[in-house]
C-alpha cells in the first residue's frame, strides 16, 4: 500500500499554487509593492511565474499532477526577497525562463531554426542588461547537441543571429544618438574580472540565500540522478540541462561573486524543477521530514531577508 504523506498531499493539491500565490502577494506588499511602487518588478515576476507554469504544463516536467515546480520558484524567489527590487534583474530572469520555454520546444528537431532563433533572442536581450550571460552560450550549444539534440548547421546560425538581433536594435539607437562607443564599453565588461571567491563582498543575507538554494539544488539533483530511470528520456534530457546549468551557475558565483544578484536568479530557475520533482515524487518518512525542514527554512529565510535586508559582516 502506497502511503501519501503530507508532502505528497501538498504537492498534488490543486490549492497549492493559489495558496502560494496569495502568500506571494502578501510578501510583495510587505516588501513595498505599494509604498515603493514596485509595480513593474511585480509584473515581470508574475509573467516569469506564468511562464514557469506553462513550461511545467507543456513539457510535463513531473510525471504526475503537481504545481511544485512553480510553487518552488515562488518560494525561493520570495525567500531571496532582495531580488524583488531590481528591474534589470527581473527582466533577465524573465528572459531566461522564456529562453528555456522556447528551447525545449526544439527537442530532437535539428530543423527548428525558428524556435532556436526566438530562444536565443531572449538570451541576447538578457545580455543587454547582464553581458556576462554570454559566457553560458558555449555550454548551451553543448546542451543543444547532447541534451536537446537539436544542434545543426541551421540551428547554430539561428542561435548566433538570435543573440545578435537585440544588438542590431541597440546599435541603431546608439547610431542615432552618436554613442556607438557605448557598445564597445558594454562588451568590455566581459574582460573585467573581480577577485576570485571574494565572498566578503557579499552580505550575510546573500550568503545564507546562496547556501539555501545550493542545498535545494543538491537535494534535487541527487534525487533525480538516483531515480531518473522512472522518467521518460525527454524529461531526463531536460532535467540534465537544469543540473548542468545549475552547476555552472554555482561555479560562476564562487569564482565571481560580484555577479551574485543575477546568477542566483539563474540558480533559482534551474533548481525549482529539481526540488519540485523531489517533493512530489518521494514518499518516505525521511523525505517528509526533509519537506518540513525545507518549508520552515524557507519561511525563516524570507523573514530574515525582509526584516534584516542589509545585515553584513
Textual characterization of the structure:
The chain has helices at 6-12, 16-31, 39-59, 68-79, 87-103, 113-129, 137-146, 153-177, 181-188, 204-227, 233-255, 260-281, 285-307. It is mainly alpha-helical and 313 residues long. The N and C termini lie far apart (52 Å). The protein has 13 helices and no strands. Helices cover 72% and strands 0% of the residues. The protein is globular and about 65 Å long.
The largest β sheet comes out as:
none
Helix fraction? over 70%
Strand elements, count: 0
Whole-number radius of gyration? 20 Å
Which percent range describes the beta-strand content?
under 5%
How many H/I helical runs?
A: 13
Helix/strand order, N-terminal first:
HHHHHHHHHHHHH
Structural domain count? 1
Low-confidence stretches: none
The 3D shape can be described as: globular
Structural class: mainly alpha
- The average pLDDT score comes to 92
Q: Give the CA-CA distance, first to last residue.
A: 52 Å
Keywords: Membrane, Transmembrane, Transmembrane helix
Transmembrane segments: 12-31, 37-53, 73-103, 115-143, 155-176, 207-225, 237-256, 262-282, 289-308
